[in-house]
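Dear colleague,

As promised, here are the two records you asked about, laid out in our usual form so they can be pasted straight into your sheet.

NAME FIELD: protein one
SEQUENCE, THEN STRUCTURE:
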Amino acid sequence: MMIRPVRPFYRQNGAPSGEMPGRKRETPGECSGIAAPGFCLPEAEMPYVRVCAHRGFNTVAPENSMPAFGAAVALGADEIEFDLWPSADGEVVSTHDARLGRVSDGEGMVWEKTVGELKTLDFGAKFSEAFTGLRIPTFEEILRAFSRRTVMNIHIKTSAEPSFILRGEWLDRIVSLVRRYGCEKHMYFMSGDDAVLAYLQKTAPDLPRCCGYGKNRAEDQVTRGLRYGCTKIQLFLDRFTPELIARAHGNGMKVTAFFADTAEKAKWYLDQGADTILTNDYLRVSGYVKNYRKKLE
């Protein structure tokens, strides 16, 4: 009689839909938090207060780059934040500015070039010669490397430039990638554009949203966030008032502070009631926040 060994399967961290040999099967999009090294707790279960590495750990590597994300994740970042734009051929890429010139050797708008054209540009040399030849990451590359290893603050960018067109198909592509990589419970979308928030509320209501400061400045972010079913708001310093924070918390919303690169500024935000601190200097600020969190336990 032949005995066939039983090999349990699960969706591997960072792997697209499908099953791969390895550990015990887990619910798609959910990890145990402590049973699987390299996994993080789902967003809804991760404790506050938190530190979010803004554009990755971007004081040691180029912003919105795989090395910057990797450095933050390796150091145990609660969250990483990155920006998404469409390419001319509908791919999803990560860079902050609409114009390419500040961080690359390219010119023009990011959405005017195909992903192939964007991949020929150098996104590292302007930060440091050591990063010469670094390429722009796609959203799929980010998910493949870091899905479920940290919470992702996914900033969907839009522009008032006449040549920019917000297409539902592009937002659908973002959502489909989140689902393909089982990242639903380890992310949230951030946008200041009401059109983006409304579209996502309708088409992907199960994926959490954060209301940012955007085009609609006649209303505060709590009012707008409630309209679009957001679970978080993200505030600049000039909008960080006790009244707005109290309203957010009273309506069950968490508050992200943009931004703090020193322990002193982080302390100020936390004392005002911030739940998450965005920082460019992850290691410096995370050390302070971790000690602050211990005092709350």
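NAME FIELD: protein two
SEQUENCE, THEN STRUCTURE:
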Amino acid sequence: MELGAIIIIGRNLGKATSAGPPYKAPFNSSCQKPMVCWDLLGASPLRRMVAQLRESGVQLISALDSVAPEHKTGAQSWEQAVLDYARGGVEEILLLDLRAYTEMNLYELVSFHRDNSSPVTNVADDRGLVGITLLRASAIDQDDNLSRRLQALSSCSSTFEFSGFVHRLVSPADYRELVQSALSGACNIKPIAREIQPGVWMGEGARVASSVRVLGPCFLGAKTRVKAGSVIRSGSAIERECEIDCGTVVEAASILPRTYVAPGLRVSNAVVDGGRFVHLGRKLEVELADTGLVGSTGKRASRRILDSLGSVFALGGSGLDLPTPSRAPASLDYVRGNGFME
């Protein structure tokens, strides 16, 4: 039987919960990408799921945004894809709501589905549904509303109890926990990099000054640059094309691609994406791009530093009055005083 897979980004087919109170501000990455599209040790959970499916022999794969405009028929994009698969002769359709990273044995799921002769099989672990559904295309009325049809089929669906690795991705804290699991070898995620010493992975073209201290397990992505006097501590992941300036300490934190971090900072228990900073301990998200402390590597680092130190030059009466919204230098004390970093 031909099996096709449809990956749905941003729609919750099952229940995914995260412990603890919500963040004080809703987290919207500056790149406006869903969390499953964030780089994680060199490749996003989405790319890793596609690779898993390919390795399992699935060749027909579609990845769709659940908030994309409706099809001219009125169906959501994923619904239209299911109908197109069915009309194209695909006999079994795997729906994956990618709000969790799951290491699924597809052979076991398909065998269970066929042995039970159910039109629909849902995958669940001890916390509930994980957002993976396998359905028979013959059970779909191609002229009916697919959502209503799936609801009608729920009464005769079966449940595949999954005991393997599942990690739900609801908050930045969930993302960081998955990074830690990968670095510690608790799951099958492998860094896209070379292990230059036990527990230290470095991507192609990454550069580290000779005075930098690197303590594993940690990850440095492709073309990332870490300048003199910096310290990269255990549990940290600095993704591709980042720049960590002189004397900065990164500890148990994730720096997302193309992010600049100014000199003399300590970034701990956090996720940083360009100018966006999330402190995991305080569940606080702030925009720091205007301060010059963090930002995008697309801007010249020298200009950012001058902007952030402008008020210091002005105090000296030298006439170098470089305006900056924060009026504060890129210093550790400033960050601590505002409660953004430990």
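A couple of things worth noting about protein two: The first strand starts at residue 3 and ends at 9. The chain has two domains: 3-168, 191-337.

Best,
R.
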